[in-house]
Amino acid sequence: IQNQQDENKLKGKKVLITAGPTRETVDPVRFFSNRSSGKMGFALAEVAHRWGAEVTLIAGPVVIDPPSGINYVSVTTAQEMYEAVMNHKNDQDIIIKAAAVADYRPKQTHEHKMKKHEGNLVVEMERTNDILKELGEQKQQEYLVGFAAETKDIEYYGNKKLEKKNLDAIVMNDVSSTSTGFQSDENEVIVLTKRGLKEAIPQSSKAKISERLFEIFIEEKQGEKS
Ligand code: CTP
Ligand code: CA
């Protein structure tokens, strides 16, 4: 009975989720990336789908299989993720940016494989677009959620990002922990919301964490209207 109720919690809603790392090309065989596995974003997509939402999942290069029954968009670079998000952002009810987007990309990408030389190599990097910040600037009716991976002063940075990017909620995880966070099937997070909620979700599967997160988002979004 619980399951049947759950299946309708996001019925008729549109949910956009980004997941995984991005990859920034240096030359045909090399790139800069990060340790994101995409598991958290995929777990969120799976729950949203199970609860009846129309789900779009935009993901960087990951090794896990996307949940079936959703609209899956595969991207590589931060720029590609930016374009995909901007193409899909309209009419969404909830947007969750769980992706670990590169902050910098090599200023120059080499057409041919780079050769080594004597001495050090300096790769000049330039900033990528901050996708979430731009979503915050253009925010309409949708409930906008960011993720923040921090290794110290988690709450301080979380609150700063919540405000600076005009978010409804930010989910913070401590990536310095090895049993949770990147790569892991489990996570432990702290959620801060614009409406003043602060909730620590204790360590559990990324699926269970996703369920609790959606409960919070749905409740706050409903509260907005009344
Ligand atoms: N983000 C994004 N586009 C970027 C960088 C980050 O959309 N170019 C999003 C992430 O998807 C995440 C949130 O911003 O939801 C926070 O990412 P994080 O790396 O923790 O914060 P930054 O704002 O990049 O700040 P810093 O890395 O300096 O801590
Ligand atoms: Ca960053």
From TrEMBL:
One of its GO terms (cellular component) is phosphopantothenoylcysteine decarboxylase complex. Its EC number is 4.1.1.36, 6.3.2.5. Residues 10-216 form the DNA/pantothenate metabolism flavoprotein C-terminal domain. It catalyses: (R)-4'-phosphopantothenate + L-cysteine + CTP = N-[(R)-4-phosphopantothenoyl]-L-cysteine + CMP + diphosphate + H(+); N-[(R)-4-phosphopantothenoyl]-L-cysteine + H(+) = (R)-4'-phosphopantetheine + CO2. Its cofactor is FMN; Mg(2+). Catalyzes two steps in the biosynthesis of coenzyme A. In the first step cysteine is conjugated to 4'-phosphopantothenate to form 4-phosphopantothenoylcysteine, in the latter compound is decarboxylated to form 4'-phosphopantotheine. Signal peptide: none annotated. CTP binds at D103, K113, F147, K161, K165. Pathway: Cofactor biosynthesis; coenzyme A biosynthesis; CoA from (R)-pantothenate: step 3/5; Cofactor biosynthesis; coenzyme A biosynthesis; CoA from (R)-pantothenate: step 2/5. The gene is coaBC. Residues 15-226 are annotated as: Phosphopantothenate--cysteine ligase. Binds 1 FMN per subunit. The lineage of its organism: Bacteria, Bacillati, Bacillota, Bacilli, Bacillales. This is Coenzyme A biosynthesis bifunctional protein CoaBC. GO terms for molecular function: FMN binding; metal ion binding; phosphopantothenate--cysteine ligase activity; phosphopantothenoylcysteine decarboxylase activity. Keywords: Decarboxylase, Flavoprotein, FMN, Ligase, Lyase, Magnesium, Metal-binding, Multifunctional enzyme. It comes from the Bacteria. In the C-terminal section; belongs to the PPC synthetase family. GO terms for biological process: coenzyme A biosynthetic process; pantothenate catabolic process.
